[in-house]
């Protein structure tokens, strides 16, 4: 039983920084994921009574009681490890906008798993965390990318998830066009058909395989061909005005490839770093979305090469007595490896 040992260890504060993720990359539905240079932070410490503090503007509507996803996931870790820590002080800050297809839920799940596990001396293995995260999220693409960083190719059979991590090719930047409106993953999965034709299934298997191999071998020239999809994007297009035109025409404006990010509504474009056409690409995307009356925020990101970074703050550390919002609201908060 872990109780005595871990309960004693769980006295300090843990701060975890977790990357956002983009899933599918076009044809790799529920399989391919890439971590992005956009982050959320979770601080966690045992407390006399549970308090959940939300920091920043991106967490509106998130529950602050024991139904909160981060609290629930942390308790699942303690239960699996045989530890009881029912009351927690949790601070959450997220630069990842919610329900936009940038993996906010996966980042919250991975952050909660890693923070809770760090509190109890890493009683669970990384693989156990990946299995738990996949079962919670119901697909391994976002959680795998947030947990391992880089690009992951994964498969889940409902019982066990396996993955291979791929180092992202160098020289590749990521442009995201984030619409103002929200689209929950649940809603965007509900529009998918129960059955597809053999022709479309073959199209996706072949393109997903080519894409995985192209990413693994740095063949950026193949992305435009390989990032096409017939499994989910055509059905989701009706939910995202402007998406179809951007996906069709982005390569004419200098993109290496363009896809729906996760379940949307964010549109993600890959481009060569430092390409002189990159500002024109932004203008093209903004014009298309504006012509559809959709307000978007465009941002350049890069693939994030590492998973969660953990900082342990001991009880005697002066930082321990700061309020979570003081720790997390500092824009420069950087968590060491
Ligand atoms: N930090 C967080 N704490 C608690 N719940 C969160 C947090 N981040 C995301 N969530 C939950 O995940 C939901 C968004 O998940 P989802 O619809 O899959 O979109 P996405 O993961 O693409 O942002 C939010 O509405 C919220 O319920
Ligand atoms: N494979 C999933 C990915 C959902 O990603 P999210 O970031 O939108 O939650 C899907 O396409 O449904």
Automatic annotation (TrEMBL):
Chief place of localization: cytoplasm
UniProt GO BP: threonine biosynthetic process
Localization per Swiss-Prot or TrEMBL: Cytoplasm
InterPro entries found in the cross-reference section: GHMP_kinase_C_dom (IPR013750), GHMP_kinase_C_sf (IPR036554), GHMP_kinase_N_dom (IPR006204), GHMP_knse_ATP-bd_CS (IPR006203), Homoserine_kinase (IPR000870), Ribosomal_Su5_D2-typ_SF (IPR020568), Ribsml_uS5_D2-typ_fold_subgr (IPR014721)
Pathway listed: Amino-acid biosynthesis; L-threonine biosynthesis; L-threonine from L-aspartate: step 4/5
Domain of life (superkingdom): Bacteria
Residue numbers binding ATP: 97-107
Alphabetical list of Gene3D superfamilies matching this protein: 3.30.230.10, GHMP kinase, C-terminal domain
Catalytic activity: L-homoserine + ATP = O-phospho-L-homoserine + ADP + H(+)
GHMP kinase N-terminal domain residues: 68-150
Keyword Iron-sulfur: no
PROSITE patterns: GHMP_KINASES_ATP (PS00627)
GO CC annotations on file: cytoplasm
Keywords recorded for this protein, A-Z: Amino-acid biosynthesis, ATP-binding, Cytoplasm, Kinase, Nucleotide-binding, Threonine biosynthesis, Transferase
Record EC number: 2.7.1.39
Enzyme class at the top of the EC tree: transferase
Stored Pfam families: GHMP_kinases_C, GHMP_kinases_N
Domain GHMP kinase C-terminal: 213-279
Gene Ontology molecular-function annotations: ATP binding; homoserine kinase activity
Family: Belongs to the GHMP kinase family. Homoserine kinase subfamily.
Annotated function: Catalyzes the ATP-dependent phosphorylation of L-homoserine to L-homoserine phosphate.
Protein name per its UniProtKB record: Homoserine kinase
The encoding gene: thrB
